[in-house]
Design a protein that fits this description.
This protein has 404 residues and is of the alpha/beta class. Helix content is 39%, strand content 16%. It has 15 helices and 15 strands. The longest helix is centred in the last third of the chain and has 20 residues.
Length: 404
């Protein structure tokens, strides 16, 4: 009998998840309802932030974060090239220009020097002020935020952490302390994706965490068309209030256009249920990563694994290996096809964003060798909570067969 196919990522849905969603479907609210605020509170408490704002997806989270910082025309945002498109698109939606940062060719993470180099290039362009930067915690590994945050403070640059891969990742804070990504210990805001291949899921969903309540209030307004129903924010007294000075119950105002980035109540119910199971998902992913690390250390193949910094305790979203395809004598497409024949699904994360036609047209001469080198070798292997130890063994054996 053929063995089951192992995709590179997969959601883990339990009977408890199904029951949580079913209860909401049988209730009074489908879109914004009580589960939204309940999930926001639980998520904020989990990561150690004052505020969490839930929204439709991770891209919306990045856009809301950029709007909360007031970014727009005339501003420049430093963004990672080795990431998904949304890391640049989110702030670019505001009208801000993007200056891409390079990365470590062996981890994909932005380094302090990459931050500094991009800042110099942006200032040489002399077409705006560098006001913010997006730093991605690729694969669930934590960037060198001590040094990057210090550079940002020195240059009055606000920091958005793209934590879409890194829910559950912890990092050292000094004096044997640890904090969780999303606590905004180093950054101003942190953005998460709760897509099905992430550690926990809402189906589709995003969260922004921050310790700034004004930014959180602005994001909640922007996710719902820019509307407010708060009487103390109304400006048109004639329409807003009745003869007794009471706010008319149907009344709302829009001071500036927003977006429909709301999350549904049943998606937040799923998020709450997943959050209750999160520690189990976390420990299983850690165990799988450790097993992969051990297995790859025992064999000789033309590849390297991504090494974790001593200051990081990651919850891996992805498990990439970096393969020397020239030494292997096979193209990446052929390796992926042969692995698929063995029942192993793989993916490439990511094509450098500065190579995308849209951004290439805006900056045609930009060269980022670290991002190009990482991309040229990257291949993500199966990693998800339902995997058995034997599945990692099977993946490694298939790689030995294909590359050996």
């Amino acid at each position: 009998m053929s063995k089951p196919f192992l995709p590179y990522g997969k959601q883990a849905i339990s009977d408890a998840d199904i029951e949580a969603v079913t209860q909401v479907l049988r209730g009074d609210y489908l879109t914004t309802g009580p589960k939204v605020a309940e999930f926001e509170k639980a998520f904020a408490e989990r990561v150690g932030a004052n505020e969490a704002v839930v929204c439709a997806n991770g891209t919306a989270a990045l856009h809301l974060a950029a709007m909360a910082l007031g970014l727009g025309e005339g501003d420049i945002v430093l963004a990672p090239s080795m990431s998904f498109l949304a890391s640049a698109n989110g702030p670019h939606f505001t009208g801000a220009a993007i200056e891409f940062m390079d990365c470590d060719p062996d981890t994909g993470l932005v380094r302090p020097q990459d931050f500094s180099d991009a800042l110099v290039r942006a200032r040489e362009r002399n077409d705006g002020q560098v006001r913010a930067a997006v730093v991605v915690h690729l694969n669930g590994e934590y960037a060198d935020m001590d040094a990057i945050a210090a550079l940002a403070r020195e240059n009055n640059i606000l920091l958005i952490e793209d934590a879409c891969h890194a829910v559950g990742t912890r990092f050292a804070t000094g004096e044997n302390g640890m904090a969780e990504v999303g606590s905004c210990f180093h950054g101003d805001l942190a953005c998460f994706s709760l897509h099905p291949v992430k550690t926990i899921t809402m189906g589709e969903g995003g969260v922004v965490t921050t310790n700034n309540r004004d930014w959180a209030a602005a994001m909640r307004k922007d996710r719902s068309h820019g509307m407010t129903r708060e009487p103390d924010e109304f400006t048109n007294s004639e329409l807003a209030f009745d003869e007794a000075g009471e706010a008319n119950p149907w009344y709302y105002e829009m001071a500036a256009p927003g977006y429909n980035y709301r999350a549904t109540d049943f998606a937040c119910a799923l998020g709450l249920s997943q959050l209750a199971q999160f520690d189990g998902f976390l420990e299983r992913r850690k165990a799988l990563k450790a097993r992969y690390d051990r297995l790859f250390a025992e064999i000789d193949l033309p590849l390297i694994t991504v090494v974790t910094s001593q200051s990081c305790d990651p919850c891996r979203h992805l498990y990439p290996v970096l393969i020397d395809f020239e030494v292997a004598g096979k193209s990446r497409a052929r390796v992926m096809a042969e692995l698929r024949e063995e029942g192993i699904g793989t993916q490439v994360h990511y094509i450098p964003i500065h190579r995308q036609p849209y951004y290439r047209a805006l900056n045609p001469t930009l060269e980022l060798p670290g991002a190009d080198a990482y991309y040229a070798r990257a291949l993500s292997l199966p990693l998800y909570a339902q995997m058995e130890d034997a599945d990692t063994d099977r993946v490694v054996e298939a790689l030995k067969k294909v590359l050996g």
